[in-house]
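Reviewers of the previous submission asked for a worked example of the structure-prediction workflow described in the proposal, so we include one complete record here. The input consisted solely of the amino acid sequence. No template or homolog information was supplied to the procedure at any stage.
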Amino acid sequence: MAVFPVPRRLSMRGIGSLIKQISENDKGAIFMGLTHRYHKNILIIDVVDGDGKLALQDIDVFINEVLSLYNGKGKEIAIDMSKKSYLNSSGLGDLIKIKDRFMDDGIVLVLIKPTARVLSLLEMVGVIQFFKIIEREDELG
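From that input alone, the workflow returned the following structure tokens.
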């Protein structure tokens, strides 16, 4: 996995160049704290376990960063949930907000291999049917 240094301040040209470098790297990269990769031109974001929140930063910042990495070639963006042991109410709210924002842009949010505890939460609150859930990233597309 490649790690690209991000200077404190970037010009628009610098951001474009950095995104191009990252987009051309098919093995994955870390950009603005997001670990990601592409599979069949579909952006996959890896989330870390940490606390019950979905993202380490403000969810609106997270969404904008994900959308800046989106190459527009597919109609899906996936989040690899396999390392997320649980979500608290804030994390669940974040997940729903992401799904709604992507849906507004015509993008389907796909959850890859959510843990049993996360699946149980989605079922318990009655939102599981609103998410596309797959077991392996080769099911994307």
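The helical segments are 12-24, 59-69, 89-104, 116-124. We consider this example representative of the routine output the project will generate in years two and three.
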